Amino acid sequence: MKFTLDRQENYNTLKVDEEKLDSTISPDLKSEFLTIQGQGIKNIILDLSDVKYIDSSGLSAILVGNRVFSEVEGSFILTGVSDHAMKLIKISQLDGVLDILPTVEEAVDAVFMNDLEKGLKNEED
User: Per residue in 40-53, pLDDT tens?
Assistant: First the structure.
């Protein structure tokens, strides 16, 4: 799987540099999510702007990422989702489960807002 990983202090951006997110790439993506989370990263932005096609195994990999980062109370945000991928996500009724934003910049803002909200909540507890 070809991808670009941009490491920042509070989040990583993983950009999939492939046109298809299918059964040939999905296992690598799942492994990458586990590796990143294992390094202590809690927030990830998955940039799918180059991905034109996603099948059920690709969707499964995305759900693994969502679960892995949710378990550590982090953020998992999709950006650059193509029309085809969005149709599949809606048909699967996952648009209410996944955080999807149009741009990486909006996703970065959301990561910081989520961290701020969690910090405030922890102060209250």
Answer: 999 999 999 999 99
SS3 labels along the chain: CCEEEEECCCCEEEEECCCEECCCCHHHHHHHHHHHHHCCCCCEEEECCCCCEECHHHHHHHHHHHHHHHHCCCCEEEECCCHHHHHHHHHCCCCCCCEEECCHHHHHHHHHHHHHHHHHHHHHC
User: Position of tokens 């693994």?
Assistant: 64
The identity of residue 15, as a single letter, is K
Break the chain into its structural domains and give their ranges: 3-124
Its CATH architecture, for the domain 3-124, is: 2-Layer Sandwich (3.30)
* 78-108 pLDDT per residue, tens: 999 999 999 999 999 999 999 999 999 999 9
